[in-house]
Amino acid sequence: MSESSHTPQVSGPVFVAHEGGKLESVPTKPLRDRDDLSLLYTPGVADVCRAIAADPELSFRYTTRHNTVAVVTDGTAVLGLGDIGPTAALPVMEGKAVLFKHFGGVDSVPVCLETGPVEDLVEAIARIAPTYGGINLEDISAPRCFDIEDALKERLDIPVFHDDQHGTAIVTLAALLNAAKVVGRELPSLKVVIAGAGAAGVAIANIFERAGIPDVVVADSRGVISRSREDLGPHKRKLAESTNPRQVTGSLTDALAGADVFVGVSGGSVPEDAIREMADGAIIFALANPDPEVHPEVAARHAAVVATGRSDFPNQINNVLAFPGLFRGALDSGAKAITEEMKLAAAEAIAGLIETPTADEIVPSVFDERVAPAVAEAVRAHS
What we know:
Layout: H1 13-18, H2 34-40, H3 45-54, H4 59-62, E1 68-73, H5 85-104, E2 107-112, H6 118-128, E3 134-137, H7 144-155, E4 160-162, H8 163-182, E5 191-195, H9 199-210, E6 215-220, E7 223-224, H10 234-242, H11 252-256, E8 261-264, H12 272-276, E9 282-286, H13 296-300, E10 303-308, H14 323-333, H15 340-352, H16 371-381
Parallel strand pairs: 1-2, 1-3, 3-4, 5-6, 5-8, 8-9, 9-10
Antiparallel strand pairs: 6-7
Helix pairs in contact: 5-14, 6-7, 8-9, 8-15, 14-16, 15-16
């Protein structure tokens, strides 16, 4: 096979849009003359440095920390691409920074690190943390992402948030709050099945339980996660202890029989026969991108409400509904962490923007300008 066959075509509108990158640094203070120079740099800056050395909290008033988040990845689990490494992940992190600024007014800096042991990544991220007001972890493979987030939350006194986990969970809960209204059900009465026990699946299961849904069953590639399974690692073992109260066993298809809600975050596919066995008035969130676990047209034959992660079908479950407002509220309030109460409040705020939910509208558009302010206000109220 020729070398040219391995080389992607570097042409077309998408490459034009990325030419030179998507970010730049812009000063917020003018540098016009010697007086400005003496204020912004030496000798004037020394006074600010001494003040911050005496009281580090002043860094949030007199530096960019008050409005700057690090978007950190090692490129091991980039959406739709997998383990492509930190350099290839940089365009995605730049895009994330664009979303932070556009939707939340939050400045952010991509930080793409060479991958390595959990302890090495935690140490590297912790060492750069004094520059930032928050850390947004992105596209880090499971189960390492759980340990990295937990260790950083213990070590740092600024918000640490893994968006692939909690951003997805927040927006999925918001969608379910309104989907349940469409089908006339209360959350505690729902039987939920989640396909995928990675970062998103675990976080969705956890937030559903905190929202009052006791019957949540999670399946991985080997079947339903239950206490009887002997092949579970620590994170899945913990999941087995907190989910599946009926102790369902077997395959995903077995779990879907009679289920009210299916949430797919696995990237696999679910046969139509399995969907057909769900309860009447079912809710299907097939969120894998670009290929949902169940095609929306197939899902619509058997479900009352259907959502995907795609923008070309109704009800797009998109993390951009959550993370810009979440960090906006956390930074504004000086929060030291993103709490479970903040996540639930954010989901309720997103859902509340749809006054009368319908099968084709259970979440607002990502371009709805009310979203980020509503989420930010909800977060501030629970800080």
